[in-house]
Fold this sequence. Notes:
By secondary structure, this protein is an alpha/beta fold. It is 41% helix and 16% strand. The chain has 2 domains: 197 residues, 3-Layer(aba) Sandwich (Rossmann fold); 180 residues, Glycogen Phosphorylase B (Rossmann fold, 3-Layer(aba) Sandwich), CATH 3.40.50.
Amino acid sequence: MKRVLIITYYWPPAGGSGVQRWVKFCKYLPEHGWQPVIYTPENPEMQSIDHSLEADIPAVAEIVKRPITEIYSIYRKVTGKSASQAQVNMVNSQEKSWKQRLVMKLRGRFFVPDPRVSWVKPSVKFLKEYLKEHPVDVLVSTGPPHSMHLIAQKVSKATGIPWVADFRDPWTKIFYFKHLELSDRTVRKHQQLEQAVLDDATTVVAVSPLVQEEFRQRTSTPVELITNGFDPDDFSATDGLVEDGFFNITHTGQFAADGNPTLLWEVLSDKCRESSLFAEKLRIRLAGKTDVQIANSIKESGLEKNLINLGYINHDNVIREQSGSCVLLLPLRKEPEYRATLPGKLFEYLGARRPILGIGQTDGAMARVVSDANAGLTVDWTDKAGMKDFVDKAWNAFLSGETLFDNKNIDKYSRVETARAMAALFDKIS
């Protein structure tokens, strides 16, 4: 069996979408002749803990952990907040305290590309020695944090091992980059580091076709598209799931204040006043880390009794929430860069085979996938009429037991298929 070394900051028991991509790859890579070797911090900052993800780590996986000096632990002490209390969207929040503004300025000016950069030098030193006794055929770095790419870049140069730079999100074109309070010098430094990663990698992997197009314009390095996906095994446990009789509109995962769909809350509030049955049956279920502004906005719309804020729940229960929903809500953040984004939860929504209401750019990457899969509808943030029409149709389908969408063309987004594509890429470059 060939070996692939995966350099990742996020790994179980940490929870969240940043963990799931490579846990799921590792689950299926051995079927294609690849043994995953994970290099990850032994003491990372974890905003959430989800032990259920550990069940997907294959027995053949080799886990190598090394300590990291966590700059964010200092931030928590300065602000007095734990990792679990941090805002979903602290970087571009308009309500930052002076302490948060100071920390953001220090982070932007002195920690390039990110606060995990202190782990680069000791990791390179360790891995060069480790690989002498434990050789691998391919290196993978997955970012953000993009310091992981700098580790792989240096190790690949020193060893000659082919390297895949996996971008779960863009670097300088990500939505929050412009909010980092960077000096002109540090902006140029980010751009130089990003370009060097794009140019030095054996292959670059993007998770969105629009990001793939942008990277291809900037480098001669091959840029492949391997999206996130859904794991069919996750949904097998929901077979025979009995619905609870409520009209559940569900959002799972991080829900940031700058993606607050205020017009949707107005639509739901109006319909509650028009129909006592709708008011009785409506449940707005939030599963995951949700900024307080979201819950407050729902309550201010008169929907407090309809709100069920579950907070962070493990991945198994997230799947059950998705599968028991009448509408899966997917609002993007109100940033132009989000046009190119394919949120990881989109693919799990596809796997749940429930109607998706996307809110964001109607010509963006998310809207393309939702339309191609006939899985729902994407409307603009300002399209109140479109939201009302969707809710009306979903409510009527709920009452009649009909199916709104057929979720065609989703098999290509299965984790089984994405792992097959990743293994084929490893075979090609090794």
